[in-house]
Structure formats: structure tokens, C-alpha cells
Amino acid sequence: MARIPPVVKAGLQSGTIMCIADIMTQKMIADGSAADDVGSSEKIEAQQPADRIIPTSSIPMLQSANEQLQSLDQFRTIQWTAAGLLLHGPFLHFGFIMLDKYFPLPPPSATSSQQMRAVLKKTMGGQVFVFPPYLLALFTYLAVTHYFHDALLPTQTQTQSSTTTTTLSQAVAQRIQTKVPEALMAGCVFWPVVNSFNFTFIAPAYRVLYTAAVGSTWNVYLNWHNSQRRGNRSSVVQLEG
After folding, report:
1. What is the pTM of this model?
2. Taken in order 212, 82, 127, 225, is the CA torsion positive or negative?
């Protein structure tokens, strides 16, 4: 059986985890919407006379929530799966190789203080040289894929607002300006702790897998963060997906 190249294995691992993270995120958002709609329907029923209680199945909002629970945004799931397969996995694979080269860890015989300093330097190196470029690449990719998806398959809202036009460069710049700073600040809290453990206890061959597995929580946050402006298209119709 042919051995899978490490970069391909990293992409497959990240793609699988990002696919699961997207489905989890969509379900979490749908569950929250359904809970709000159920609460509204209960208030409506409570306000009606006993002989005029509105059947739950007749409330459009609740029907819409149930439909969301049963269906997923397939484009979004494919988009994030491809991000893991083609970007996250390969990027971190080569990023860890670079960190190992320029921020090597001391031998086991080194003192604990020497090992701690080396781990801290390597962690800071990752936060400066790997994490920001990855976020820029990720949100650029998301902006480009959303832009062409919206251009090829415009929604009814976009069709009605066709007077608003956005170029690809504007879409990318706007996505980076609105998404990267907040994601970068959140990542500066989450990833130093994760990578300190990673560089101290995880063997190099398993670092991408560990990062992808632990980072599933982070991927849920990124997915949610990226989707926050989906419902608000009043100003930039073709920008957010």
C-alpha cells in the first residue's frame, strides 16, 4: 500500500475536521433560531382564547426553523472542507517545518528553563510568522469563493439590489478589514496555550493532526465569525455569503 505523503495526510485530516466543524456550527445556529421561534409561538398561543389556539404547524416561523434543522448550506460545507484540504492542512504542515528549522527545541538533556524559553520562542514565532498569514489567506479565499458563488448563483435579495456592485478586490479588502483583526485577537488568546502544549509534548509527525483536532473549536468560532454578516446585506450585497 502506497504511503500517503505527509502534506496530503495533513490536508485530509484538516478537511475532515473542518467539514465536521461547519456542520456543527450550522446546527448550533439553527438550534438557536428554532429555540427563539418556539418561544415566540408559545407566547402567541398563550394570548389566544382556548378555542382559537393556533396550531404549531401553522406558524411560518417555526416551519422555517424546522426546515433549517433538516437542511444544511451545502456550499458553505464544501467551502470549509476545501479550506481544510487545500489551505489549512498544507499551510500548517509547511509552517511547522519552518518553525522547526528556525526555532529548534533543545535536546532532552537541556534544563527545564532552557526548554521553556525555546518553547516560548517557538510559540511566539508561530503567532507572528504563521498565524497572521494563514488568517489573511483564509479570509481571502472565503471572500473569493463567496464572490464568485454570489456572481454565478445570485439570491433573490441580490437580484433585487442589483444596483449595488462590488469588485473582487473590494470584496477581499472588505472581508480582511472586517474579519481578520477580531479573529487575530481571539487567536492570540487561544493558540499560544495550544501551541505551547503542542511544541512541548506532541511529536512533529502528529502536530498538524493535534492542531486540527484541538482547533475544531477554533474552526467553529471562525465559521461562526465569518457567517455573522450573512443576514445583513443592506450595504454590500455581493460581499458576504
Report:
1. 0.73
2. negative
